[in-house]
Amino acid sequence: MSRQRQDQLLSTLLRQGDWATAASLADQLGVTPRSIRSYVAAVNARTGDADAVESGPAGYRAGAGARRALRTRQSGESAPRDRLHGLVRTLLDVPTGVDVFEAANELHVSEATLEADLSRVRGLLEGTELTLERDREIVRLRGTEAAQRRLLSRLAHDEMDAASFHPETFRRALEGGAVAAGSVAPFKSALVGELGELGYYVNELAISDVLLHIAIAAERVAAGHALEAGPTGAREEIPRVGAVIARLAHEHFSVTLGDGDSSHLASLVLTRIVAPGEDAAGDVARSGVDPAVETAVRAEIARAAEDFQVDLVDETFVLRLALHVQNLMRRAQERALTRNPLTRSLKTSYPMIFEVAVSIASGLHDRLGTPIHDDEIAYVAMHVGGRLERSRKAESILTATIVCPGYYELHELLRSSVDRSLGSAIEVTSVITNVDPDWASFDTDLVLSTIEPGVVGDRFVRIQPFLTDSDVDRIQQAAARVRRGRRLTRLRAELARYFDADAFVYPLPDEGEEAIIRRLGGLLVTAGLIGEDYVENTIVRERMSSTAFTDALAVPHALQMTATRTAIAIGVADGSAAWGEGRVQVVALAAFSETDRAAFQTVFEQLVEVFSERDSVQRILRRGTTFETFLDELVAVIDG
Predict the structure, then answer these.
(1) Which example biological process does GO assign this protein (predicted)?
(2) Residue whose C-alpha is closest to residue 196's, from 241, 242, 257
(3) For the segment 197-242, what is each residue's pLDDT rounded down to a tens digit?
(4) H/E segment holding residue 197
C-alpha cells in the first residue's frame, strides 16, 4: 500500500478542513472509494492516542492526529523512499565508499534490491554535479561539498510537510547528532532578533529553508566537511551577517564555523529571508541591483499594469521587486530552492494576483533568462498583492444608509459606533431619522435599520440602537452576501456569452494536461476563435505554473489575449484527470481577446471562486454531464 497515497489523503483532508465523502476523495486522488477506506485504516494505525482521520455519516475529515501522522514512521517501516534516502546519506557520510554487500545486510534487503536502489540514486543525482563511482563492490559519491549539501537539502525537502516546519523533520533529515532538534528553535529566535537589530525585515515564510541549510552546515562541519571558501563577488554585508551566524551556531550548536561556511550561510540569509528596512530599501536596491535587472523589472511592471489594468507603477514597489528579483537570480545561480508554504492558498484565494505575477515572471524570464518556479512566483505574487491591497480595499467598501428614528443624539451615537466597528468595510453616506422612510428610495448597498424594514432583501439589516457584537456580525455577513452577489451576477452574464455547446467534452480523457489542452483548444481552433499559436502559448503558460487553481478546477490559458473573441471550452472528467502534481475534475480552457480585458478578471477570478466550494462542485459534477445540464447547474449554484 502506497505511503505516498496515504500522505496525499491526509494533505487533502487537512487542506479542505471539512467532511468529504470517499467518492469525492477517490476522484481527487485517482483511486477507488475502497482504496480510500484502506488508506484511512492504514493512516489511523500510525497514531495511538488520536485518530488521524475521523469517520462519520458525512464521510471523512482530518482528526487531531492528522499532522502528526504525516510525520510518523511506523515501527520497522522501510518504504523505498526512506531506504533510498538512507543509502544516499550513508554515501555522503563515507567518502571512501560503501561496500554493496555490507550495505544490503545492514538494510536487511537483498543484493538485487540494493542494486535497484543504486540505479535510483543515479537518477536522483542527475543535474546535481555529483556522480556515483563504482569499483567492484565499492561505490562512492564524488562531487563538491556544496553539491553534497544541496543534495541533503533536497532529501529533507522531500520529507517535509509542504506547509509547515517541524523539528522532527530535522531529526529525520540530518540524523547526525551534532544538532539537537530542540536547539533549532532558540537559534532561530536569536537569529531573527539580531537581524532585526541590524535593520532587516525577516521573511518568516522562507526561514525554515535557511535553518535547514544552517543545520546541514553544522552537521557537515562537525563531521569534518567544511566549505573552503565563501561565495565569489561577496557583498559588503556578508562578513557582518556571517559573524552573527557563526557566533549563534557556536552558542546553540557548539559548532565552530569557518569563514567559508559563515560567508556561505550569510549569503543564503541575505538572498532568501531578509529585506532592507523601509529607510534603506531604496539605497540598498540602487547599490545592490544590476541596472539591467532594474530595467527589466520596471518594464515588466509597466507592461503588466497596462495588460491587466491595475495600479502597479510605483517607485518603491519597483525597487523592492527589483531587489527581490536580483536575489532570485542569485538563488538560481546556486540552484537553490526557496519554498513558499502559501503558494497553494495564494493561487486558490487570489488567482488574479497570481496571474499578474505569472505574467511578470514570464516577461522577466524572457528578458533575463532566469527560470522562475511556482514558489518564487508566489513571492512575486505577494509583492504584487501588497501593492494592490490598498486599491482593492477601496473598491470593496460598500455604502450604507442608517435608519434610526430620532431621539436626542441616538442616531449620532449609532453612526459613530458603525464607523468605529466597520469603517474599513462600510461607508455611511446618509442617516434617516424618520419613522416611516421611503424604503424603495434608498440606493446604497446596505440599509441598517433600528426599526423593522418595510421591504425584504439581503441588503436590509435590522440592528439595535446601541450596536452589539451580534449586529456587527450580521452586517458583515450581509456585506459579504452583497459583494458575492455582485461578482456572481457579473459572472453569470459573462458565462452566457462565452460558453459554447460545441466546445464541451464529457467524459474528459485522463491523458495529461498538455493532451487535454490540445483537445479542448482544438475545439476553439475549429470554431475559428483561436489559432494553433494560442494552444501552444497555453502549454507554455502551463509549464511555468500549474493552472489547477483549486482541487477541482484547472483554467489553462495563454498570457497573450489573441482570441478572436473570448470563449471557454469545458471538459468534465468522469471522476478526475491528472493535472500537474494533482488531479482535477473540470478543465476550463479560456481564450481571451484583447477587447475583453474586463472579462478576463471577472470570469477567471469568479469561476475559481465557484469551484472552490466543494458542495457546489459535487452538485455540478453529479448532474453536469451534458453542456445544457452543466450550464444549468453552474448558473443554479451562482444564483444560490
Answers:
(1) regulation of DNA-templated transcription
(2) 241
(3) 888 888 777 787 788 788 888 888 887 888 876 655 556 788 889 9
(4) helix 181-197
Per residue, the 3-state secondary structure of 618-636, as one string, reads HHHHHHCCCHHHHHHHHHH
347 exposure class (CB count in 10 Å sphere: 0-12, 13-18, 19+) = buried
**Gap between the Cα atoms of 614 and 597, Å rounded:** 29
User: For residue 548, what is its C-alpha cell?
Assistant: 489547477
Closest by CA to 572, choosing from 507, 616, 525, is 507
30-75 confidence digits (pLDDT tens): 788 888 888 888 888 877 666 888 888 888 988 888 877 776 654 4
* Residue 208 backbone phi and psi in degrees, to 5: -65, -35
The Cα–Cα gap between 582 and 577 comes to: 9
- Sign (positive or negative) of CA dihedral 476, 480, 481, 486: positive
What is the b/e burial string over 222-237, where b = at least 16 CB atoms within 10 angstroms of the residue's CB? beebbbeebbeeebeb
Distance of CA 389 to the CA centre of its chain: 18
Question: For the range 310-315, what are the long-range contacts, defined as Cβ-Cβ under 8 Å and sequence gap of 24 or more?
Answer: 310/356, 310/388, 310/391, 311/387, 311/388, 311/391, 312/356, 312/384, 312/387, 312/388, 314/387
For the purposes of burial, counting CB atoms within 10 Å of the CB of 140, is it exposed (0-12), middle (13-18) or buried (19 or more)?
middle
- What order do you get walking across the sheet with 426-432 strand by strand? 426-432, 398-403, 446-449, 460-462
CA 134 to chain centroid, in Å, comes to 41
Q: Give pLDDT tens digits for 111-131.
A: 888 888 888 888 888 878 888
Distance, CA of 500 to CA of 568 (rounded, Å): 7
Which has the closest alpha carbon to 47: 23, 63, 59? 63
Residue with cell string 497515497: 5
- Looking at residue 465, its amino acid is P
d(CA 322, CA 237): 18
Name the pTM for this structure: 0.70
- Hey, what's the cell of 97? 565508499
Give the pairing of strands 562-579 and 582-593.
Answer: antiparallel
**E strand spans, 378-515:** 398-403, 426-432, 446-449, 460-462, 499-505
